């Protein structure tokens, strides 16, 4: 009734589905969420991750802008000129300047502190 080819296909589908299902289950139950991963980290590493979070977010936003701009042009992505090519330079260059971002964050923090001090000084004058 069933030919050897049909038996082979049936066995392949069953074994393939079982392997894929096992992979999905293992992924679901073994991979931690971002919150679980952060909670398991040491305080020093967690602080470093939190410190660099805004840098990674800004870098991702800039990369998305570059991708949108590149998708509108007919040129290949390597000819757009906005992305850094590691084979042409020293390598390891970030899209966002980390020092400039840290300086901007420090300036914003300092301005907030100055505003608080000004408000306190005005409150004391009254």
TrEMBL record:
InterPro entries: Cbp4. GO terms for cellular component: mitochondrial inner membrane. The chain crosses the membrane at residues 12-31. It is a single-pass membrane protein. It is found in: Mitochondrion inner membrane. Its main location: mitochondrion. GO terms for biological process: mitochondrial respiratory chain complex III assembly. Keywords: Chaperone, Membrane, Mitochondrion, Mitochondrion inner membrane, Transmembrane, Transmembrane helix. Belongs to the CBP4 family. Essential for the assembly of ubiquinol-cytochrome c reductase. It has a direct effect on the correct occurrence of the Rieske protein, core 4, core 5 and apocytochrome b. This is Cytochrome b mRNA-processing protein 4. It comes from Pichia kluyveri.
């Amino acid at each position: 009734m069933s030919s050897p080819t049909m038996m082979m296909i049936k066995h392949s589908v069953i074994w393939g589905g079982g392997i894929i299902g096992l992979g999905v289950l293992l992924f679901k139950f073994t991979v931690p969420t971002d919150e679980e991963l952060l909670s398991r980290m040491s305080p020093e590493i967690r602080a470093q991750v939190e410190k660099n979070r805004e840098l990674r977010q800004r870098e991702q936003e800039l990369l998305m802008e570059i991708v949108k701009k590149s998708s509108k042009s007919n040129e290949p992505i390597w000819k757009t000129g906005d992305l850094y090519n590691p084979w042409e330079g020293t390598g390891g260059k970030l899209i966002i300047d980390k020092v400039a971002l840290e300086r901007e964050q420090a300036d914003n923090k300092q301005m907030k502190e100055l505003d608080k001090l000004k408000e306190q000084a005005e409150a004391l004058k009254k």
